[in-house]
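User: quick one
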Amino acid sequence: MFRHTQRLQFDAKPEKPDPVLARKLQELVGGAYGEMTVSMQYLFQGWNCRVKGKYKDLIMDIATEEIGHVEMLATMVARLLEGAPNTETTKVAVSDPAVGAVMGGMDPQQAIIAGGAALPSDSNGYPWNGRYAVASGNLLADFYANVAAEAQSRLQAARIYNMTDDPGVKDMLKFNLARDTYHQNLWLAAIEQLREDNLEDVVVPGTLTDEEHREHAASLWHLSDGDAAAAGLWASGPTPDGDHEFTVLSDPEPLGEKASPPPPDPKLFATYDGSYGEPKSPALGTEVGLKGKIRGALSPDE
Amino acid sequence: MFRHTQRLQFDAKPEKPDPVLARKLQELVGGAYGEMTVSMQYLFQGWNCRVKGKYKDLIMDIATEEIGHVEMLATMVARLLEGAPNTETTKVAVSDPAVGAVMGGMDPQQAIIAGGAALPSDSNGYPWNGRYAVASGNLLADFYANVAAEAQSRLQAARIYNMTDDPGVKDMLKFNLARDTYHQNLWLAAIEQLREDNLEDVVVPGTLTDEEHREHAASLWHLSDGDAAAAGLWASGPTPDGDHEFTVLSDPEPLGEKASPPPPDPKLFATYDGSYGEPKSPALGTEVGLKGKIRGALSPDE
Amino acid sequence: MFRHTQRLQFDAKPEKPDPVLARKLQELVGGAYGEMTVSMQYLFQGWNCRVKGKYKDLIMDIATEEIGHVEMLATMVARLLEGAPNTETTKVAVSDPAVGAVMGGMDPQQAIIAGGAALPSDSNGYPWNGRYAVASGNLLADFYANVAAEAQSRLQAARIYNMTDDPGVKDMLKFNLARDTYHQNLWLAAIEQLREDNLEDVVVPGTLTDEEHREHAASLWHLSDGDAAAAGLWASGPTPDGDHEFTVLSDPEPLGEKASPPPPDPKLFATYDGSYGEPKSPALGTEVGLKGKIRGALSPDE
Amino acid sequence: MFRHTQRLQFDAKPEKPDPVLARKLQELVGGAYGEMTVSMQYLFQGWNCRVKGKYKDLIMDIATEEIGHVEMLATMVARLLEGAPNTETTKVAVSDPAVGAVMGGMDPQQAIIAGGAALPSDSNGYPWNGRYAVASGNLLADFYANVAAEAQSRLQAARIYNMTDDPGVKDMLKFNLARDTYHQNLWLAAIEQLREDNLEDVVVPGTLTDEEHREHAASLWHLSDGDAAAAGLWASGPTPDGDHEFTVLSDPEPLGEKASPPPPDPKLFATYDGSYGEPKSPALGTEVGLKGKIRGALSPDE
Amino acid sequence: MFRHTQRLQFDAKPEKPDPVLARKLQELVGGAYGEMTVSMQYLFQGWNCRVKGKYKDLIMDIATEEIGHVEMLATMVARLLEGAPNTETTKVAVSDPAVGAVMGGMDPQQAIIAGGAALPSDSNGYPWNGRYAVASGNLLADFYANVAAEAQSRLQAARIYNMTDDPGVKDMLKFNLARDTYHQNLWLAAIEQLREDNLEDVVVPGTLTDEEHREHAASLWHLSDGDAAAAGLWASGPTPDGDHEFTVLSDPEPLGEKASPPPPDPKLFATYDGSYGEPKSPALGTEVGLKGKIRGALSPDE
Amino acid sequence: MFRHTQRLQFDAKPEKPDPVLARKLQELVGGAYGEMTVSMQYLFQGWNCRVKGKYKDLIMDIATEEIGHVEMLATMVARLLEGAPNTETTKVAVSDPAVGAVMGGMDPQQAIIAGGAALPSDSNGYPWNGRYAVASGNLLADFYANVAAEAQSRLQAARIYNMTDDPGVKDMLKFNLARDTYHQNLWLAAIEQLREDNLEDVVVPGTLTDEEHREHAASLWHLSDGDAAAAGLWASGPTPDGDHEFTVLSDPEPLGEKASPPPPDPKLFATYDGSYGEPKSPALGTEVGLKGKIRGALSPDE
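Assistant: Done. Structure below.
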């Protein structure tokens, strides 16, 4: 259960309105690596966490913080839209280049839909969606995803930081940048912790490493004609998991046969000339129908 | 420019059809962490790579390989759908539990749309989309994303590996698992290489670290009531980037003021009682209109 | 079955082209509360209506009208795009601020995809989709949704009304605004009619009111620190359905236990330390397998 | 800023796992009228609220509660998936009708992506998206939308309530149903409060009522051949806003001219035979270019 | 403007309910090539048609018919859901294989959202969206798209025709199949008519044929290793537009230089080692700023 | 399996940067008819092709070429963004109309997400998705779709060709236009080839032509009041498939009964007054339950 204070985690006060910047900040609200993503990602990870104690507690701390970041950004966006030329006509834009410059760069939906406020969308007006939030139950996989998310997030914040001179916006972004720095360091430390606790190692998931085709687990298939890749750390020496030696297949040949689909089900009307043989009748991965099953049930030893 | 051989990178021959598994494998074709994602992600990263030589060459090698993985999976899916009960009526399903078991778990669009073949969609029929592919131009940010993608990908392949007994499918998945192992190791090595080459460090992007509010760059805000998080590597000691000491804010208070939007533009008809004061007229981040600009242009020293 | 006349329900003749306004009007064509939504919403409600006579007839009257509104808006959009700077080059925009002001605010797809016409998309180019249309079969639930849709729709039309001085556009919007006024009144009257006819009451659905946990059916959980909410009509006195007295829980405590997921299925490779106990084997809501069922079938009294 | 306790608002303990029900409950998590929608809808409404005091405080109370509902549902879903046949092969499903019945009705992504937990998606695996959340800044429009959302939400919860016999699930749903009852009553009371406070009236927005074409603001256009609609409360008598008398246009004729697009821009290659006349050259809603503007700037009286 | 009769264009009466088939028919309602697509596609084409008379009239005739097809299908879907096991619990499904077979194959949203009726979605529950509808203003391009849409549509109807034995459903599908036959013939005839009327020819658009690089307008680039393609009608002889001779480039070499991006803007923090040279400062396709423009305005001959 | 050379199929070198054009070109990268669509469409068609030899080989040749077109366009987009005003502040835009003109027309995500490069999205920032790619297994249906795709594609390229004066961009587009000309001719020739090979005829699929209601397979239902459609080639004379004579139903009457849904399942809480009779209990298309089936299994002759 959650509780809320109307005080913001950090101030969000622009010096002046700037509707063009208000549009760009939508990327940090509802973009693929915006605050809605990390808040939902961490919430679902926390609820899904199967290890009691410090991991779950940590994830829920950060998740709860991130909801407050959406709030902070949404407040900033609304303030940047104050008195903005949302309701100016094109005629005004055409006759005043300053208005024109701004109107072209605005998000019309911030005015038409939200009445001058933030939307759960990105800077091109595409709505946030649930496929952005990663929560697999495997903490190593998810912490890798968290490092990646915080890295893209800080990168985007840094880019937008350069697109404004407003001291109030920059002040808030300095807080966001700092938190993104912390969160990158934090998830990297959490990865280290998983290893110290012997819960996970380097490769996700820490299993099937002997079952997989080990001979293909460390070789670079050289399939593009740039030839400098053979010089990298990924091309020779031990692999980060310590389990292989990197190699290069400089002239790789396909290992499989020629690709072909099976003969088609004639009732699906694929164009067909019989070249792949007779279509099979339904085969469901078993030969036994109901009768077979009943028989089997009555004679379980078969 | 690309070239193609009809031979598969690795074999994709199931022992028997299995349309339920064919649906699940759609996740590896067109899911958020399927082969379409990594192929498009690496292609766009390669085309966007601003460092000549080994990084770009490496990315293009792997990108080119991944297109072949989509091909391998798509071929496997079609073969698993051979002779499947796509065209059976519900009446048959109802009277034969074996058919019923399979029909419920099938993807109807593999039959109705594709005629018994793979779709560019995930295991719930949701189409692959471009927001899945990450290519920021910052190699460290993108390599973190690549590790994360390969980790989720191998995890999903491993889960599906446990959902089948078919030796042919398992053989192909052993190849996929091995490649995902390699690709995780590879991107981790590439991160190391970026550091060795002094192109990037630990935190993304490697800038604004002094400008950001450093006092907030290493502290855990304890906002959820589980209290074990203070015991982790993320709570004390040096940060992975070596630039901070982790701390815990055990009873954090908001630093900002009470959140409030500005007074609304009256032409947008927000419900308003005047409590936030008079709405401002348009303010575009500048006071100068056209006349001001012309004046400024003629008298640039003002 | 439908019939069509090429005459518009109302005129749609702008005085002058205005491609920036043409983009904004896309919100009324294909936005979440545009004409495509209400036409599809009412069509599916009408087809799904299980009460013969006046309700179904009413819904189909309005649904049929709304298709004509899409037509009216689409015609207006095309006319606003006449002779527009769709095919001007950036060079022209850069050298003529008037063109520049317009080009930035245009929807490029109206030119590139539609050749100067309306699209089934909103003002940010996001396509209309079927999740917008609500048709549940419960008329009270759907009429509430219809009031809400017409309210948002009239609000958006009113906002855009303020963004133009074109007398022709304003004339058409005066018709749209009037119809939205009527449709709000209409659906409110229809809600009243449902009550008069004793088909529905206030709360949707009109059932399970005794079965639900009545003690939680009228209390405000005070979870945010603003303390003025206790003064509203929702905080004390009888509820609109006459079935409860509003109360306030000013310091609410969670009623549930600490959230935790179950022990994970080991074959899904969640990170796990055993802290939630042994994973269960499959349990499908029943203990009987096939043998049990056959036994049960033969001995139905068990 | 938010705080969190790991205790759930209400218990979420099923008696037994039931993966088919776990899929259906996704509708209440991430569907168009699920808990993610109302939590995001209320959060954005609260942040966008331009009236200090009881309205904002109320919205934030409810918004904060709803995040906890997502948590409650997500926990329930994970528990319903315990020990589920996620990792069974099709072969098992085919040979055991009980497993087959369940596997067909499961959401494969709950296993493959989430490792046996809830997803931010609906019951068909379609991800939650930001277009679901309505927050216009007009409180009457938004409270109508809130009534509608809670009505659909309670309707869906009631439907799912009938799809299970599990006493634990039913117990939680009894809480959800009760809260949905309260929230419907609450938003209806809030609508009444807006009227008492003279902030809004019946029609949204409370403006332009004289400017719109009043003669079209109260008439039913009879466009479908069912003839019972003329008997309803929407067909005669005063309108709910008290501002009109309902009427019926029993044989309505179109008021507009024949629809036609303008002559096309020849550079966009529409098929054209000249029948609509000569295409116009660019006309931007103004005749003045840069020179005109400079002239105007220097001679502001023109 | 539209009018409606409640009589269906053709009967839609199944002999018996069949919820599995009801799900599959969603593909014909709201799939990429379902009736919603063609109705919206033809409506927008008709509204966008720049040729007066027979083309526009034809498109509007067919568009109006197609809305009635959505109605027919939606009615059929609701009837197939009559008395269906929507509200059965998993327990029943597990104990009765006949119920289990059906429940797995059902669309849960038809029950939970629509209360036993059709949805504006496809057979995997993905909502219809506006990107499916093609209306470019170029009639030849659009008629090609119409032939393609009707072809996919009849193919899908034919596939579903084979998935049912219900005489009522088959009767309706025989009507749909016939209309799809007519519509394919119709659009092919309309293509012929465009040529007879000298409005369009074979290639879309009928322009820039001399300006394009003609030497690349008729050659097959042989980039995949299957070598049978050189034997087709597309490899030699005159092209269908009569303007070229087909040829084969059997061993094609790239014509362009090595791909490389430009040096990055340093404020966007791409990883960069300087290997592509110094980043340029902003260059907007022009060298002139405001001063230049004012100068140009005053001295237009420069 | 694929291989790659870093050399582009054709040059992609603009004379100057132009970020507005870079946005428009996104339509050709990731729009519904952009290069991502045709590359994925042809790849899935090729993998799904059930006819050995020239058809499959052809499709794979073209598919492989199209991946290279995505590369060419992506490279062009990055170059057009060189030194662009991505990181300028609104203040600069407002004070320099040339910058303002450009900033309004830019795609902010090309800077914020991609760091100055192409995205897998269209010109309104909507991501490419898998529903765009058509691959049905029926070659005639798919070749019709391919003609349509190449026609829309060339049309869009031609429109953009007119939006730039840059000789480098125009040079690349001349290549694209030529390839689109070839591909239209090619797929038209391939349709001819299918007929020569007696694999398909005119209507898709080439079946059920006698089973469908032939009396409805050639008649124009005149449902819109424009009356010129009766004069077209689609209104009289033989149909293109030679199997019918076109006719016109000038005053068509519906053939079906009044549309009505069945009585609703009471547990789904549709509003209902009993007017459609008693709801049926579950009827699954069969009367036999498990006992019936076991009985049938033991006594197969019944």
